[in-house]
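Morning, I've got a small favour to ask if you have a moment. Here's the protein in full, and shout if anything looks odd to you:
***
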Amino acid sequence: MLGGYGNAPATELTNAAVEQQKITELRIRKSFGNGEAGAAAADPADRRAGRLLAQLAPRAADAPPLRSPITTHVLDTCIGRPAPGVGVVLARRAPGSAAAWERVASGQTNKDGRIGDLLPPGDHVEPGHYRITFDTAEYMGRCQQEHPAFFLPTRRFYPSVSVEFEIQAHQAREHFHVPLTWNPFGYSTYRGS
C-alpha cells in the first residue's frame, strides 16, 4: 500500500477485518436480536475473523514447523502394537445446535497407528466442540483374520469409539493430540502432546 497509510499492509488488513466484524455484528443483532439466535448467527463471523487474524499474524523465526492442529494415534493393547488402517472421522458441532455435527476431516491411521495430517498444517484451530470417531469394527475384522487366537468373532464389543472434546477460544493456537488405546473390551483416551 502506498501513500497515507502509516501501518504495514498486514496491520491495515487486520484493522479492516475488525471493522467489518463490527458491522456484521450490528447487522446480526438488528436481524436476530441479542439472544441465543443472535449469538449463534454471529459465530461464523467470529470464526472467519479468527482465521483471518491467524493467517495474518507473523510467525516467529524460531517457531516449530506447522502441523495439523489435531492429530491422533491408535494403539491396540490386545496385541501391543500400533493399529494401522483404522478409519477416523473428525466432526465439529454445528454452531447454534446441540445435536447437528459437521464433518471436518477423515483419514486412516498409518502403519504406526497415527494420523498426523488430519487437518491442513496450521498454528490455529477453530474453537468449538469436536468429536473424533474411530471405526474399530473394520479394524477388528482384519485383526480376526490376522490373529484368530486373539480376536474371536464373538469378542467384539466396541464397533466404534467416539471421543468428544472442546477447544476454547484461548486454546485456538494449541496443538491437540487425541490418542486412543483400544482392545476388544475396553479403551482409553487422554490429551496427548
Q: What stands out?
A: The first helix runs from residue 9 to 32. Strands lie at 70-76, 81-82, 87-93, 101-108, 114-115, 128-135, 161-167, 176-183, 186-189. The chain has two domains: 9-56, 70-189. Helices lie at 9-32, 36-56, 136-146.
